[in-house]
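anyone seen this seq b4? input:
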Amino acid sequence: SASPGIFIQGLLVHGPGGKVLSQTYLPKEVVERAFSYAEEAQIACCGFLGDRNVTLAAHPRLDELHERYFEPASYVADSLEEILAQDVYKILFYGDDEAVINGSVKPYWEENLVEGAKITRAIPEMLELVPAGTSKATGLAKLLREYSVTPEEMMAVGDGDNDLEMLQLAGLGVAVANATSGLKEVADAMVSSNDDNGAAEALWKFVLKDE
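predicted toks r here
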């Protein structure tokens, strides 16, 4: 918490000493509709609160989100009203497979998206609702201004479509080998996959090697 950085899809930005530079939350209407939809569709759903997530129903997929992807653990709220009383950064739906997201979840939200929110996606089996006008790039731009660093001086490494704006912002945008096809199209360079230490390779190859 004392480190500078962008977190939760760029919705939380920490500056020097962990000072909070920016926090952006979803409209309450979006949160309410998201959890109502998840209950009807019987799909795993959680809201990101910061150091923990919240859900209306425990689900193995939410356990996996914590254990495999190291996202905050989800606690089960007693009611939707309890969730709405809190500030929610983003909503995440986690399907059993990509077909569930592409076949029902994504089409529903493309047709019924509430003003003030947008869809983003990092992993094929997941779909996220985040505040409109936000991205990792918007959060990163705030952090760069705090340190008087220009985007041209920055390198960004990514693997998912939710990294696209960030790579476009950076002076050097690097995609790992297992990145989505859309991200590879905008990248300036490629490195090995996440599993093969692609981020470390990028740091060595483009930042440290000539020092």
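The radius of gyration is 18 Å. The mean pLDDT is 96. kinda curious what u guys think
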